[in-house]
Amino acid sequence: MRDLISWLGKANLLMGAVVVLAALIEFKVDRSDKTPLYIALAIIVVGPVEDLLNKLLDQIAIPENQRQLYKKMVDQLTSLIFLILLGFIVIDQQIHDKQKNRLLT
């Protein structure tokens, strides 16, 4: 079971890195479309940023129940930021669709 969990962790890290890299390359090619940037930021927030914050919490000398509350707060905040970034993608796509429709008419 531990081998499977380890493998899944490595697969997540690799997939995240590939998607972030591809998204940043796509954003560099077409800066008018911010969707790839939002995708990269969303992955970074719920991946490495959340992991870093939780590791920092593990190093602080605080009672365990308080540490768990802070970790739940980190989880909720990073999830909220992730959803906000996905919302930006929806808004950005709506703007692009309106611009395309104006050009076609």
Number of domains: 1
Mean pLDDT: 93
Number of strands: 0
| Uncertain spans | none
Shape: elongated
Distance between the first and last residues' Cα: 58 Å
Major sheet details: none
The structural class is mainly alpha
Number of helices: 3
Describe the protein.
There is one protein chain. By secondary structure, the protein is mostly helical. 90% of the residues lie in helices and 0% in strands. The protein has helices at residues 2-29, 35-59, 64-104. The longest helix is centred in the last third of the chain and has 41 residues, at 64-104.
Architecture blueprint of SSEs:
Elements: H1 2-29, H2 35-59, H3 64-104
Helix pairs in contact: 1-2, 2-3
Q: What keywords describe this structure?
A:
105 residues; elongated; 3 helices; mainly alpha
Please summarize what this structure is:
This protein is mainly α and 105 residues long. It has 3 helices and no strands.
